[in-house]
Specification:
Blueprint (H helix, E strand, L loop, with lengths): L2 H4 L17 H20 L3 E2 L5 E3 H4 L15 E3 L5 E4 L4 H10 L8 E10 L11 E10 L4 H17 L7 E7 H10 L8 H11 L2 H13 L2 E3 L5 E3 L5 H11 L4 H11 L4 H19 L7 E3 L13 E12 L5 E12 L5 H4 L5 E7 H10 L12 E3 L6 H16 L4 E3 L7 H11 L3 E4 L2 H6 L1 E6 H10 L3 H7 L3 E5 L3 H19 L1
Parallel strand pairs: 1-5, 7-10, 14-15, 14-16
Antiparallel strand pairs: 2-4, 3-4, 5-6, 6-13, 7-11, 8-9, 11-12, 12-13, 16-17, 17-18
Helix pairs in contact: 2-5, 5-11, 6-9, 6-11, 7-8
Length: 504
């Protein structure tokens, strides 16, 4: 065997499809955004809870097909006791399990919020990922629609806390019971039609994405997308499709109330849903939330089957440019609704619940479009240069670094090869470091350090044309006693901050 054949194969670095690596800017933006969301939830009296990424597969419920390996829609594996576990699909089903398991310990109504990653084993595409973050709030144990109305108000307050102005968002509200009445009106009532109803729900949930014509295809024979993939339709007749599209096409609820009542007449559940919508409308209006913030809108469906009553969606109204260069309304960044049956699956008794979920990544994209994120720039660290490599000098450089850190200043001691001082300054420049701290043998003998203003130095290097002028300037580098290092660094960082504010 030749040497070439013996050489081991180099492992190829590959990111799995549908997943992303997050950089420092994105991580900080998410932290900034979730802190603002958390403040609103806490103000409403909600408390945090955290559930694991994995759940037993049967706890996730109706997302799964009847298959030997339940791995469609979710990522699953078999435990050593041969029980199937799956990565959570959302944050709501795990909460239902958590509440059921601790039902005798928790105080009802149980008001909680959670932020975390969820996983979908679906075909990835532009803007569609297999791992993404959600931020949920839920009330378990409150049956009245006032709990649903509160969720809508909290969503509106969250949008404004994030800097989204009125007119740039609306919380749209519908009721699944009204939709059930419409299903009865088109002959899809009863357990035998459960799958057909779910197909219809998923079809009309695509109204914003595909428009009425695309939804008509999904309600009828089916739709082929641009890639050639075919989605089987619900197989409804034209008369049935017309009734569904009338319902979801209502724009002015008050003006269409009589027609809607006529459509669901004969359905007790449909009538109950209309009454609940009217109650929510009254409650939010009484609290000062007009239709510019919270609006009754029958086109809101929410595709998940577990919703049992009011459903709501936070929609952004401003236009952005999509991948094709087209101006489009940004659309939904979160939603939720009442899911009275989800906890009950574990309990054998009714347990009312309502909640909503914010899509963190999508909302972050929206906030970046509005210029509402990343305004508080994180300053790069001050770099303490390494001029001498003996252990005493290294200890001194480390002490300078720790003194800066203990004073709340980001700082790092240069960790590369210190032979070439110019490379240290190049490194500091690439890092965007505001200052460099320098002490060679001469400075050490005098008990002083040099602090170099890298921002000002860069500016001066563009303006000063000869060495004599550079030596005369020297304003970008100052000498201070070691004891005054922290104070001088603070002073120079403050001056840089003033310059940024003036030039902003």
């Amino acid at each position: 065997m030749s040497e070439k054949q013996k050489k081991p194969q180099k492992l190829k670095a590959r990111l799995p499809r549908g997943f992303v690596d997050r950089d420092a800017a994105d991580i900080r933006a998410v932290a900034e955004m979730t802190a603002k969301i958390r403040e609103v939830y806490e103000r409403y009296g909600f408390d945090p809870v955290e559930t694991p990424l994995f759940e037993y597969t049967d706890a996730l419920g109706k997302f799964l097909p009847d298959a030997d390996r339940p791995n469609e829609g979710v990522f699953s594996l078999q435990d050593d006791d041969e029980q199937w576990m799956s990565l959570r699909y959302d944050l709501t089903a795990p909460l239902a399990r958590h509440v059921a398991e601790r039902f005798n310990e928790i105080q009802l109504p149980y008001r909680t919020y959670r932020a975390g990653y969820v996983f979908r084993n679906e075909k990835p595409g532009p803007g569609r990922f297999r791992q993404f973050m959600q931020f949920d709030a839920d009330t378990v144990g409150a049956a009245g629609v006032q709990a649903d109305a509160e969720m809508c108000m909290m969503m509106a307050d969250t949008m404004e806390a994030l800097g989204i102005a009125r007119g740039d968002y609306v919380i749209r509200v519908n009721n699944r019971k009204v939709l059930d009445g419409v299903m009865e009106a088109i002959g899809l009532a009863g357990e035998a039609n459960a799958n057909a109803r779910l197909t219809v729900l998923r079809a009309i949930d695509k109204l914003d994405k595909f428009g009425p014509d695309g939804v008509r295809l999904l309600l009828g024979p089916g739709r082929k997308d641009e890639s050639g993939d075919f989605t089987k339709g619900a197989g409804l007749f034209e008369e049935q499709i017309d009734k569904v599209l009338f319902f979801v096409g209502i724009k002015d609820y008050a003006a269409s109330a009589a027609d809607l009542a006529a459509l669901v007449s004969g359905s007790a559940r449909g009538g109950e849903g209309v009454e609940e919508l009217n109650q929510i409308g009254h409650l939010v209006a009484s609290a000062g939330y007009g239709p510019d913030r919270i609006k009754i809108d029958p086109s809101v469906v929410r595709g998940l089957e577990y919703y049992t009553g009011p459903v709501f969606e936070a929609e952004l109204q401003f236009a952005v440019t999509n991948e094709k260069g087209e101006k489009v309304v940004f659309g939904s960044v979160g939603g939720g609704g009442r899911y009275d049956g989800l906890v009950s699956r574990f309990m054998g008794q009714p347990v009312p619940a309502t909640g909503f979920s914010i899509g963190v990544s999508r909302l972050m994209t929206a906030l970046k479009n509005l210029g509402k994120l990343g305004q508080d720039e994180v300053l790069a660290p001050v770099v303490v240069c390494v001029m001498d490599r003996d252990i005493d000098s290294l200890g001194r450089y480390q002490r300078f670094t720790q003194e800066l850190r203990n004073a709340g200043i980001r700082a790092e001691m240069y960790q590369g090869n210190p032979k070439n001082f110019g490379n240290q300054l190049k490194y500091a420049d690439r890092r965007g470091a505001p200052l460099a701290v320098i002490q060679g043998g001469n400075e050490r003998a005098e008990g002083i350090v040099q602090v170099k203003d890298l921002i000002e130095g860069k500016r001066l290097s563009g303006e000063i044309e000869d060495n004599a002028a550079w030596r005369e300037a020297r304003v970008a580098q100052v000498s201070v006693p070691e004891a005054d290092l922290v104070a001088k660094v603070r002073e120079m960082l403050a001056a840089q901050a003033e310059d940024r504010a003036r030039n902003a």
